[in-house]
């Protein structure tokens, strides 16, 4: 197998940093024959262009025989990439996907839910917390645009405020000019009469989650229905659907709706949100027909947390489909 046809797999440990932690990088290839040398890089963000360049890690410019590398005293969020080579002259693999270690920065949302009613009185705040005073909130919208809070909200200190009838569908995260990142969250807005109400932050595999059907105005409902991938899974008066331990079999699009007694609008259904066995709802549900966006975009990865990086590859969207993001590309 030619080296240049392989994509190595990079793992980092730990994923979340405490002060002064060492970070261990492990780079593996599909065919672990002898003769490989491993090269290690830090991904350096360039926020004006939203691209990353690779900077060799100190002491690694000539590669290592061992498939691991230790970074001592890492204190801030950082992204890493590896690649491998063998032969004379050397034949290199592709770059691995970028993997991040995180400094503990977080993005919180109020109200704490993934879906929101779009009304004149809608008020949404997104607050960044971490070791920086220079946070900004970014959004990658369901239409494929990457923008900052100042474009669609108002940034006051570490908080972005969104008010009134605003378009809010997209993935949000905090970022600084020095390359610190927070977790990412997906938010959906709707003019429908119902939403599926659950916390905006991820629920990892094995944890319980409750989905509640919430109404814009109070309704006297005889039956409240929950659907998975448009198939009815519960049809009663409880108004909530409980998953005791999220697993692979629970993956799918969930929505709710109801039929009421003498209620004209009681048949409305909520938007659909995705549940994954690793995370909740980091899926954009789009209304337009399939589009392609040859512009800068955002890549999400799942390792208990949802991570993000930039990419220059094309992304294709289709209505109500899980987005398939491309691999990390370094410039």
UniProtKB/TrEMBL annotation:
Highest taxon above the source species: Eukaryota
Keywords: Disulfide bond, Signal
UniProt-listed SMART domains: IG, IGc2
GO biological process per UniProt: cell surface receptor signaling pathway; immune response
A single GO cellular-component term on record: external side of plasma membrane
Pfam short name (any one): Ig_2
Protein name: Ig-like domain-containing protein
């Amino acid at each position: 197998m030619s080296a240049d046809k392989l994509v190595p797999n990079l793992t980092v440990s730990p994923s979340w940093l405490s002060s002064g932690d060492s970070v261990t990088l492990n780079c593996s290839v599909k065919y672990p024959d002898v003769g490989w040398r491993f090269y290690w890089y830090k991904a350096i963000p360039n926020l004006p262009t939203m691209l990353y360049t690779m900077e060799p890690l100190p002491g690694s410019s000539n590669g290592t025989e061992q498939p691991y590398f230790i970074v001592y005293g890492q204190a801030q969020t950082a992204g890493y990439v590896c690649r491998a080579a063998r032969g004379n002259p050397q034949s290199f693999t592709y770059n691995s996907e970028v993997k991040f270690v995180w400094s503990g920065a977080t993005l919180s949302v109020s109200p704490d839910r993934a879906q929101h009613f779009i009304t004149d009185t809608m008020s949404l705040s997104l607050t960044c917390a971490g070791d920086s005073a220079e946070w900004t909130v970014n959004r990658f919208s369901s239409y494929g645009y990457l923008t900052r809070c100042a474009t669609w909200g108002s940034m006051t200190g570490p908080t972005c405020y969104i008010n009134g009838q605003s378009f809010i569908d997209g993935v949000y995260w905090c970022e600084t000019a020095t390359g610190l990142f927070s977790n990412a969250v997906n938010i959906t807005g709707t003019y429908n009469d119902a939403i599926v109400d659950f916390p905006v932050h991820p629920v990892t595999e094995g944890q319980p989650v409750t989905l509640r059907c919430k109404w814009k105005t109070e309704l006297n409902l005889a039956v409240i229905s929950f659907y998975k991938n448009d198939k009815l899974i519960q049809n009663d008066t409880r108004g909530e659907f409980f998953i005791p331990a999220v697993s692979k079999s629970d993956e799918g699009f969930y929505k709710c709706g109801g039929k009421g007694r003498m209620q004209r609008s009681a048949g409305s259904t909520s938007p659909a949100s995705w549940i994954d066995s690793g995370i909740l709802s980091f899926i954009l549900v789009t209304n337009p027909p399939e589009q392609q966006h040859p512009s800068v975009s955002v890549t999400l990865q799942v390792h208990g947390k949802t991570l993000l990086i930039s990419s220059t590859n094309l992304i294709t969207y289709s209505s109500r489909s899980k987005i398939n993001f491309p691999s990390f590309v370094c410039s």
